[in-house]
Amino acid sequence: MTARITRRGALALGIALVAAGAIAAVIVAFAVPGGSQFPQLTPRAAPAAWRQVMLPNGTAVLSYPPSLRPVHSDKGAASVARLSPSGTYVVYLNATPRQGDETLRNWATFRVNLLRADHAASAHEVSAAQGVRFRGGSGSCVIDDYVTRIGAHHYEELACLAQGRTGASVVVAAALASQWATAQPMLEQAVAAYALR
Amino acid sequence: MSFTLNRSAAGLALLTALLAGCGASTGSSPPGGQSSTPAASTPAATTPAATTPAATPSPTTTKSSGIPQGNGGDQDADNNGGPSDGDGNI
Q1: Is residue A159 within 8 Å of A194, Cβ to Cβ?
Q2: Using an 8 Å Cβ cutoff, are A122 and A89 in contact?
Q3: pLDDT number for residue A108
Q4: Rounded distance between C-alpha atoms, residue B86 and residue A173, angstroms
Q5: Could you report the per-residue pLDDT of B32-48, keeping only the tens digit for each?
Q6: CA dist B51 → A102, A114, A118, A177, B71 (Å)
Q7: How many of the other CB atoms lie within 10 Å of CB of B26?
Q8: What residues contact residue B18 under an 8 Å CB cut-off, 6+ apart?
Q9: Please, what is the average pLDDT of chain A?
Q10: Per-domain residue ranges of chain A
Q11: Predicted confidence (pLDDT) at residue A111 exceeds the cutoff of 60
Q12: Interchain contact B26–A (C-beta under 8 A)
């Protein structure tokens, strides 16, 4: 009699554990946008062969590999890119002093809303993180993808608002979605090397 | 007695399932001090469109936007179908 009761109890407990695992898996899947975790970014100096460009206001330094070249950007900003033979931006890095109403708390939503309101026909958040450590500061980051209104180019980007001692700036690391998997490690390395003053 | 023990086991099972579910919903942060911020939990943000003056769309623009597309605004790459830069749309 006692053994029978124990077996029934163990069976019920086993069923409960399986159910708990299933519930946990469902909750985790819905808690993270797109089911993706934000990658770990560890602040680290860029390789010696990389080049550097400082923001004109002196608040940050963007490092980039020799495969990228400086391109036109807004006054006060810095941009480098690799373009296709037809002139399409394939890989793109940009650093810009903070200009708008973005904050460390609202960054992910701000960025995606900005894309939708300005350049993109559609934009979706993939993952985001706050409290990201940078060289000389900390920030908030978002990974998203969007399709431009002109040309319908599909880009994926890692964009961060970073706060240093002397100022805040935005660093954008983007690539055509078709090239994202290949470019992402280099782009993450560039963001991890982004140095705040 | 059998009925009481079975009911206790069932209750324990239900409690375990509920606790596991609650624990999972608060334990999704990645390591290293970086906290994942799902869209649903991100504080509501003021959209750039609400804080910037409306701009007249260029002929090639299909929707109203903060900075005119088609080489408009600052003639930056992102006004010509390129990737978006980090400006705050001002």
Answers
A1: no
A2: no
A3: 98
A4: 10
A5: 345 444 433 333 333 33
A6: 11, 11, 13, 30, 22
A7: 9
A8: none
A9: 89
A10: 2-31, 51-196
A11: yes
A12: no
> Which one, of A157, A153, A156, A171, lies nearest residue A84 by Cα?
A153
Q: Given an 8 Å threshold on Cβ–Cβ distance, is B42 in contact with A9?
A: no
Residue of A9, A24, A146 lying closest to B21 (CB–CB): A24
User: pLDDT tens digits for A32-78?
Assistant: 444 579 999 999 999 999 999 999 999 999 999 999 999 999 999 99
| Cβ distance of B45 and A110 shorter than 8 Å | yes
DSSP secondary structure code for residue A135 in this structure:
B
Predicted-complex ipTM score: 0.81
Q: List the one residue out of A15, A46, A112, A34 whose CA is nearest residue B44.
A: A112
Compute the Cα dihedral for A133, A53, A109, A112 and give only its sign: negative
Length of chain A: 197
A66 three-state secondary structure: coil
CATH code for residues A51-196: 3.40.1000.10
**A24: Cβ contacts below 8 Å, ≥ 6 apart:** B20, B21, B23, B24
Contact between B13 and A10 under an 8 Å Cβ cutoff? The reply is no
Q: How far apart are CA A128 and CA B30, in angstroms?
A: 11
Closest residue in B to A109 (Cα–Cα): B45
Instruction: With CB atoms and an 8 Å threshold, state whether A9 touches B6.
Output: yes
Sign of dihedral through CA atoms B78, B84, B87, B90? positive
A154: helix, strand or coil: strand
Classify residue B12 as exposed, middle or buried by CB count within 10 Å of its CB (0-12, 13-18, 19+).
middle
